[in-house]
Amino acid sequence: MRILLTGAGGQLGRDLQETLKGHDLRALDHAGLDVADREAVLRSVQQARPEWIINAAAFNDVDGAETMAKAAFAVNGAGPGHLAEAAAAVGASIVHISTDYVFDGSKGTPYAEDDPPNPLSVYARSKFEGERRVLESGVSACVLRTAWLYGVHGKNFVRAILAAATKGDPLNVVADQVGSPTATADLARAIAQLIQTPARGLFHAANSGACSRFEFAQAIVHGSVEVLPITTAEAARPARRPANSSLTSVRWQQAGLTPLRSWRSALDAFLDSLPDPAA
């Protein structure tokens, strides 16, 4: 299958490169293609003429977006629209990656695909704009909302907690934000399965179950250091976060797709795969 991957330098993009290496894959990082540049997007897609475009490119600085709204909307909002337009021009389908942060977290239980979004931050609004543009473009599309991504590559919560734990000091971690931690390797495999099927539309794709950031950190360090709960207010981050943006899906299994394993199973497998620092 001929695939064009954008955002190939990010943590999900790099795992997708590994997972999709059996295909005819053209992988472009930000230097190779800025999705905010409409003409460059149209030109690259015309040259590659892929069957699938997988958009893993994103402006992911949630707090930074509060003061860089123009940049966030260019990449997260306009960029997916450019890719959808380019896909339509060559008859390609598109997978676009969105986020749990499109929800405000007030529901109190996991969000399914039909729940109404209400983004709280600039980042969240820019991501909601991107998925809206893709879904309203009329192109053959899958929009995947996922959550709390982590993997071997790039910056993420798991790697940050592991690095902080090496100092031996207690860790202060927010206990009043709940979500669905998701391994990028698992999401990459889910995408590889998805593009082999006729499934189209909006899906939630995350490791199953939910936990707080505090519980997630406890599971990461396995008691090697003390983890202390703090509130979102005490963390004093610039961007508002949803209190409970955990995800569930009513559409994934209906489409005949394999549910992602539990977040704890995925985390344990990830931690087991890491080299032993004492070795």
Q: Would you mind describing this structure in some detail?
A:
This protein is α/β, with parallel strands linked by helices and 279 residues long. It is 36% helix and 17% strand. It has a single domain (2-155, 181-208, 245-262), classed as NAD(P)-binding Rossmann-like Domain (Rossmann fold), CATH 3.40.50.720. It is built from nine helices and twelve strands. The strands form four sheets. A six-stranded parallel β-sheet has the order 2-1-3-4-5-10, with helices on both faces. A two-stranded parallel ribbon has the order 6-9. Strand 1, helix 1 (11-19) and strand 2 form a beta-alpha-beta unit. The longest helix is centred in the first third of the chain and has 22 residues, at 69-90.
Average pLDDT figure: 94
Looking at CATH, the homologous superfamily is: NAD(P)-binding Rossmann-like Domain
Fraction of residues in β-strands: 15-25%
Helix content: 25-40%
Gross CATH architecture: 3-Layer(aba) Sandwich
Q: Outline of this structure?
A:
With 279 residues, the chain is an alpha/beta fold. The chain has a single domain, classed as NAD(P)-binding Rossmann-like Domain (Rossmann fold). Helices cover 36% and strands 17% of the residues.
Descriptive keywords:
279 residues, alpha/beta, Rossmann fold, 6-stranded parallel sheet, two-stranded parallel sheet
Helices, strands, pairings?
Blueprint: E1 2-6, H1 11-19, E2 24-28, H2 38-48, E3 52-55, H3 69-90, E4 93-99, H4 122-136, E5 141-146, E6 149-150, H5 157-165, E7 171-174, E8 178-179, E9 182-183, H6 184-194, E10 201-204, E11 211-212, H7 213-221, E12 227-230, H8 232-235, H9 263-273
Parallel strand pairs: 1-2, 1-3, 3-4, 4-5, 5-10, 6-9, 7-12
Antiparallel strand pairs: 8-11
